[in-house]
Amino acid sequence: MYDIKIIEKEKYIDVIYKLENKIFTDPWTKKMMKNEFNNKLTLVLGILNKKNKELVGYSFLFTIYDELHINNFAVKKNHRRSGLGEKLLKYIIDYSKENNYTRIMLEVRPSNTAAVKLYRKFEFKELIIRKDYYINPKEDAVVMIKELKEI
Fold this sequence. Notes:
Aminopeptidase; 4 helices; 7 strands; 29% helix
């Protein structure tokens, strides 16, 4: 019913921008998104409904050396608790292994208990706390890491 695909075109920026503003209290700007789409080190994934091609989730991933960083991860509110977040995270982990990344890292609000629970389910571990990382509202970030292979 849903596919996860690499989005290489900017045709989804408006849709992602609208979702971003509905989901996050401190959303990315459209300019930030355009910069990410044009960055050779960024990979953008989308969860698309197979029937109508509606974008119901997305993730911006930044690659550097042997590490993949999840910069943004979102599923449309009315599609949560349906397994799509798990499916997207599993895709990211599989992609990372297939492309020889040694670890995946991310920041998450500690108050986002659903996201923290999802990451822990996939064996992400808490690495450090970044004080006052988020602005609106002001909150620390938990840096989480998943080691994929021994260095």
